[in-house]
Amino acid sequence: MEKIISESKIDQVAKLINKYDNVVTICHVSPDGDAVGSSLGLYHFLNALDKSVTVVVPDALPDNLCFLGGAKDILNFSKYPEFATELIDKAELLFCLDFNALSRVGDDLSPLIAKAKAKKVMIDHHLDPENFCDVIISHPEISSTSELVFRLICRMGMFDVLDCLSAAAIYTGMMTDTGNFTYNSNKPDMYFIIEELVRKGIDKDKIYTKVFNTNSVDKIKLNGYATSEKLEVFPEYKTAMITLTREELNRYHYRKGDSEGLVNVPLSIEGIVFSAFFREEKEYIKVSLRSKGNFPANKVASEYFNGGGHMNAAGGEFYGTMEEIIDRFKNLLPMYVQYLQ
Ligand code: 5GP
Ligand code: MN
């Protein structure tokens, strides 16, 4: 396996883990498979080393990740802010997983992380990491943070400590951040890692079914409604857009995660290279963007929607009405024609 993380960073993290017993992991808001996978991957590993570890998430997990071992022990900051604050204050070592900027943990949590006395280690794969950690392991060329966690554990010489629960969490993150190995998935090392995870005893078929193939009637109907009634295509801009208002989401008893993956669907239309999904939340409209090739979804997210992300998968937030965001979106498309060639 190619050595990706530098020797000196491996060394620094190994020393921190050796020195400290009180550990907290934290990930980005609306935790996804990679955020939760990297958190629980590290959690089980550190538990096996007899550390006292708590996985803190800013807000609730989607239902389809709750099957993961250790998910029940995850502390939801939005539900138990006092308890989580106390643990973060007391932590000696803090792992910041799958995010590159303090703002990504939300307004209430970010000042707590900023002022925490703990040594901080970032493990992440988003571009342009902010400088708020003592050790920064940032590799945008690697498709998931979970893969980086695996690499870190191996390079510290502790592959033997990695158990099946940790392996399952890591696999989940690798799988979700590559759309079940359909994008960012051409590096041979990934398949070597998967082999090792399978040897640890994970049931990868079950993980796929639990994460991607477990639907409710409402979820199927919501997605059907979205793609049949709410899909708008702009052929001249090779772009598609789906919008869902609060009222529409309520109609299908929307639960967190029910629209996961919806933004990818229009990219399967021949000729479409850019897809946007706008979902109305309580205080803002959540923006999800996906693209193919050189179309910079992250540029659109940062220039127009207070967000960021990767070239082909980005997101952000918009404070305004659905009419306003649709207007903004239609108006920005002509600015990006140069990327359509
Ligand atoms: P999703 O559409 O799945 O919510 O997000 C896709 C990717 O876009 C994430 O992996 C993350 O890199 C980025 N992203 C999503 N929302 C935000 C946001 O509000 N701010 C920033 N900076 N990036 C985001
Ligand atoms: Mn990720």
UniProtKB/TrEMBL annotation:
State the protein's name.
Exopolyphosphatase
**Top-level taxon in the UniProt lineage:** Bacteria
Return the InterPro entries for the record: DDH_dom, DHH_sf, DHHA1_dom, Oligoribo/pAp-PDE_c-di-AMP_PDE
DHHA1 domain span:
254-331
Q: SUPFAM superfamilies, alphabetically? A: DHH phosphoesterases
- Species assigned in the record: Coprobacter secundus subsp. similis
A Gene Ontology molecular function term of the record: nucleic acid binding
Segments forming domain DDH: 23-155
